[in-house]
Amino acid sequence: MTCKDCVAEWDQESDVPAALWRPRPTPHPGPRCATHWREEKKRRKGSTHEKRVQTEYGLGPGDYDRLYEFQGGVCFICRRANGRTRKLSVDHDHKTGLVRGLICRPCNSLLGHLRDDAGAAHRIAQYLLDPPARRMGLVAVHRENREADDGG
């Protein structure tokens, strides 16, 4: 069988001589060649994700993409994950159900571990800015850092 998408493309590009056109084999449903099947899988995956966030979180059509762009295309918390490999999670308040934003899986796990406790998040910031060991006057250095300073 020949790929239905390749045939459609060839029909539209009639400037290609029929003698030069070779239909590609169709090992995938549709029937589609490998190239067009990858495109179809990507389209289906996006469509499924869109329907899921609409059903699960009450987002309107295109809201996920608009929120993603509004956040600059990255996880709101860590600013590292961009959702290209794995889509960012829709974060929501578990008490009210209101959507807050898009975050990566590790940040979502962190919020879950903190049980949305803003006080705990504040303590994390305090801890990073002014750790207890520094306040006590301790000046101990982790082994890996000592070895790096020693050149080895």
Fill in the keyword field for this structure:
single chain; 152 residues; mainly alpha; two-stranded antiparallel ribbon; 6% strand
What does this 3D model show about the protein?
By secondary structure, the protein is mainly alpha-helical. The chain has a domain at 1-45. The protein has 7 helices and 2 strands, in the order H-H-H-E-E-H-H-H-H. The chain has helices spanning 4-12, 34-57, 63-70, 105-114, 118-129, 132-136, 143-149; strands spanning 89-92, 99-103. Strands 1-2 form a two-stranded antiparallel sheet. Strand 1 and strand 2 (99-103) form a beta hairpin. The chain starts with a helix and ends with a helix. The model has no long low-confidence stretch (mean pLDDT 86).
Strand content: 5-15%
Q: What spatial order of strands do you see in the largest sheet?
A: 1-2
Number of strands: 2
Overall SS class: mainly alpha
Largest sheet: 2 strands, antiparallel
* Order of H and E elements: HHHEEHHHH
What value does the Rg take, in angstroms? 26 Å
Distance between the termini: 62 Å
Overall geometric form = elongated
